[in-house]
Design goal:
The protein is built from 19 helices and 18 strands. By secondary structure, it is α/β, with parallel strands linked by helices. The structure holds alpha-D-glucopyranose (GLC).
């Protein structure tokens, strides 16, 4: 199949979150399954200079954003059988931030138009156009509205429903090339909502875990879009993300002090080096916990701040927190780290290499999210043999099975309710088992067996694409034969459970 993806970020070119990691690895996994993969991205100023110097300038042309004629340069880059095209316009993309700029609507409307121009000029002729998150949410709408006459089917993946791309209604007339008949599919509560546009118009909607796909159908997780998601119940699926095991590999990761793989002694060596580096007591025994995260409320940090003092006073542990984010959390963690100098460190930056070393050094990885579409931290932790302690929500629930000491199953620890005491009790239970070699070895064995790569999930995306192509063929036959057929959307479909 010929698959063209559209997204706003992709590692190592630009990254604010997990979306970039998915774009760095899913296309590669699909290309390995013999599909033709193209990814179209904005050329953000964040692009590392060593990559910029390798880009090939293909052409430049004009893109119209209503009455504004804008320059668009097109660059290409190829790696792992995936072709990346970068949309260049310094006015729109040479910015300090990828999002959160006052003219975000115009920037990503421009990107949408430039995306279609690129597809036509390069005659990419896709079977499937796969869009990710609100920044590309207009693409399915433009196709349904016939602004661009492609027959391709669209897949839209929600990585986080909370960020919807909400803009004033005036943007419709000022920037969009759409007839007013299409306003309804884009409008929500008196604003334009790019996420809604995609949910309503994509041929298939996916999100990044089966549990999150179910959760967002109700008001608690639905972020006001549950009604529109429910309308798509027959064409929505949850597919868990994988990680690129060649990038995250404790046996060959150059960041890791002592390479190891399924080897507890090697891991302990990394812990010793990290303890020395952070000026913590050097001890194999004391369990080391890490939390590596954007410091925002939805990651469940209020639960942690609530129990932090009690945890550090009552338990003999070491805790390292790494990340940046909301001031309230940064200040609390700074204060706690100062107070508990023997046992707690707060690293108030995000540093990729150091993050890898913390995964490698730690015994436990904390992720008590309030909601979590998929979560990659827990998968990376499993790969580095650090035991996740998570809240049972979204992808955390689908990837971490709580250890059951009676049947010996489970690759981590989890709690159900968003409750600080439950979190604390789960941590205490985990510490209790950490000191029992029979259980600890069982948990480690289960962790070693966890399936983390893209193999299975890429095949589920393939199934979605194939189903849509069947539908496309049936529609074409219909036009050709003028005889009625039963469309795939009328058939019974269901959430794909991993
Ligand atoms: C978003 C979600 C996260 C998910 C990632 C990649 O960042 O918050 O849970 O893993 O996207 O899909």
């Amino acid at each position: 199949m010929n698959i063209v993806m559209a997204a706003s970020e992709c590692a190592p070119f630009s990254k604010t979150g997990g979306l970039a990691d998915v774009l760095a690895s899913l296309p590669k996994a699909l290309a390995q399954r013999e599909h033709k993969l193209t990814v179209i991205l904005p050329k953000h100023s964040a692009l590392p200079s060593e990559i910029v110097s390798q880009l090939e300038h293909l052409c430049s042309f004009s893109v119209w954003v209503k009455w504004r004629e804008q320059y668009c340069g097109l660059f290409s880059y190829e790696t792992s059988d995936v072709t990346y095209y970068f949309i260049d316009n310094e006015y729109y993309f040479r910015r300090a931030h990828l999002y959160g700029e006052p003219d975000d609507a115009e920037r990503y409307v421009f990107f949408t138009h430039a995306f279609f121009e690129t597809v036509s000029r390069l005659q990419l002729d896709p079977d499937i156009i796969h869009c990710h998150d609100w920044q590309t949410g207009l693409i399915p709408l433009y196709l349904k509205a016939n602004v661009y006459p492609y027959k391709a089917k669209t897949v839209y993946t929600i990585h986080n429903l909370k960020y919807q791309g909400i803009f004033p209604l005036s943007v419709f007339d000022e920037l969009l090339h759409l007839d007013s008949i299409h306003l309804g599919g884009l409008e929500l509560n008196g604003s334009l909502n790019f996420m809604k546009a995609a949910i309503v118009h994509a041929d298939w909607v996916t999100t990044v875990s089966p549990t999150y796909a179910n959760e967002i159908l109700g008001p608690y997780y639905g972020e006001g879009l549950e009604r529109y998601l429910l309308e798509r119940i027959n064409s929505i699926s949850g597919i868990v993300n994988g990680i690129d095991e060649t990038v995250y590999n404790p046996a060959s990761d150059l960041n890791v002090s002592v390479p190891y793989f399924k080897n507890y002694a090697g891991k302990k060596e990394n812990k010793r080096i990290m303890q020395q580096e952070l000026d913590l007591t050097v001890s194999k025994e004391i369990p080391m916990f890490v939390l590596i995260s954007r410091l925002v409320e939805e990651k469940g940090l209020p639960l942690l701040t609530h129990i932090l003092e009690e945890l550090l006073i009552t338990e003999d542990i070491q805790l390292v927190i790494m990340g940046t984010g909301e001031t309230q959390f940064e200040e609390t963690f700074q204060h706690i780290a100062q107070r508990f100098q023997d046992s707690c460190r707060f690293i108030n930056v995000f540093h990729e290499g150091l993050a890898h070393r913390l995964y490698a050094a730690s015994d436990f990885f904390l992720m008590p999210s309030r909601f979590e579409p998929c979560g990659l931290g827990q998968l990376i932790a499993l790969r580095y043999e650090s035991i996740p302690i998570v809240r049972e929500t979204g992808g955390l629930k689908d990837t971490i099975k709580p250890y059951n000491e009676f049947n010996g199953e489970g690759n981590g620890f989890s709690f159900t309710n968003y409750n600080a005491n439950d979190f604390l009790n789960t941590i205490r239970y985990a510490i209790h088992l950490y000191y029992q070699p029979t259980h600890w070895n069982r948990i480690l064995k289960n962790v070693y067996k966890s399936k983390l790569n893209w193999d299975h999930s890429a095949s589920l995306y393939e199934e979605v694409y194939e189903r849509l192509l069947m539908q496309l063929n049936e529609e074409e036959n219909y036009v050709h034969d003028h005889r009625p057929i039963k469309s795939v959307t009328q058939r019974e479909t269901h959430l794909i459970i991993r």
